[in-house]
Specification:
The complex is a heterodimer. Chain A is mainly β. Helix content of chain A is about 0%, strand content about 50%. By secondary structure, chain B is mainly β. Chain B has no helices and 12 strands. The chains are: A mainly beta, B mainly beta.
């Protein structure tokens, strides 16, 4: 199966900096999701996007559903140490009756206090 | 909140053993999934199920089987564990059309 191209693979930033990561796909999706995985835990859903062009915020996190339906972006403003983890994008395609998600490879975020 | 519970956080098994990984969800979700997670490879779908007694192969089903006898329970079975099946296994459930909720994972080591 396909995998989304997620970049960057890892980031090491200073506390207080803003963070941007993105996912791209060769095929369209009708839903984009962003998850965060803390060490030793399963991924937790952060933001869900259902419409092309949609911009949604969840606290310091903002995600956008690209207008081509082939990409999505996640921004974290004013990072803090608890933002550390792996961030995954996931897409749900319009022809998938089984509700399967396609995942990006993840962005590992490290924050230096 | 949906709760997805995986029976073990850590398991150590020997090559050739039969291994059962259990997953239970408490929100009456139709869809359940098993993934494995390996460094640099992200989450890869092993099997999923969209109804009781129904199962579909994911991207990497070889060496695995599943069982869904009840709606809330989805089991992953390694018929004869091998060292290349050492991995983090994640179970998830979802309502059709919505994002998945994940369990905390089972770190399996096959020696």
């Amino acid at each position: 199966g396909q995998q989304l191209n997620q970049s960057p693979q890892s980031m090491f930033i200073q506390e207080g900096e803003d963070v941007s990561m993105n996912c791209t796909s060769s095929s369209i999706f009708n839903t984009w999701l962003w998850y965060k995985q803390d060490p030793g835990e399963g991924p937790v859903l952060l933001i869900a996007l259902y419409k092309a062009g949609e911009l949604t915020s969840n606290g310091r996190l903002t995600a956008q559903f690209g207008i081509t339906r082939k990409d999505s972006f996640l921004n974290i403003s004013a990072s803090i140490p608890s933002d550390v983890g792996i961030y995954f994008c996931a897409g749900l395609d319009p022809y998938n009756a089984g509700n399967m998600l396609t995942f990006g490879g993840g962005t590992r975020l490290m924050v230096k206090p | 909140d949906v709760k997805v519970t995986q029976s073990s956080r850590y398991l150590v098994k020997r090559t050739g053993e039969k291994v059962f990984l259990e997953c239970v969800q408490d929100m009456d979700h139709e869809n359940m999934f098993w993934y494995r997670q390996d460094p640099g490879l992200g989450l890869r779908l092993i099997y999923f199920s969209y109804d009781v007694k129904m199962k579909e192969k994911g991207d990497i089903p070889e060496g695995y089987s599943v069982s869904r006898e009840k709606k809330e329970r989805f089991s992953l079975i390694l018929e004869s564990a091998s060292t290349n099946q050492t991995s983090m296994y994640l179970c998830a459930s979802a309502v059709r059309g919505w994002g998945s909720s994940f369990g905390s994972g089972t770190q399996l080591s096959v020696l």
